[in-house]
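Working notes for the structural subgroup meeting. M.R. asked for a predicted model of this chain before we commit to crystallization trials. I am recording the input and output together here so anyone reviewing the notebook later can reproduce the run.

Input as submitted:
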Amino acid sequence: MEMLYIRYKNRVSGPFQMEELQKQAREGLLSRFHEVSTDGTIWKQARELKELWRLPGDISNMLADDESPADPFKGAQTPAPNTPTGFEGLPPVDDMQWYYNSPTNGQQGPVPTATIHSLISMKQIVAETLVWNSTLPNWLEASQTSQLAIYFS
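Returned structure, recorded in token form:
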């Protein structure tokens, strides 16, 4: 079984089996911004490793290369940033896609809420980090959002 190393900001960890990394990705501990290597010397972006992002029961590996699964969100409308925010029609916060402004890498995203929580715990998102999702009227400091303020109090 192939073992993989993970690198983020020049910090290397591993080796890990693919199943371990898939679990870390589902839990938001591994993002598409990490780098992956089989030998610890040649690295590529984790987002390029498609099998890493497959969910249990995902049938996409059974599709021909020129096929793609139907888009379950096709036709869904996301409120514009200036739309007043209420709870009607908004996706649950767990399905929310976030953007954040990294001091070292600029604007990042979209990433799921679980990844945002992980980045907060790793101090890569701090109270003053600017964040945005479709429920916010504009970019706000993470500590000023109702979804994230609890992590900074």
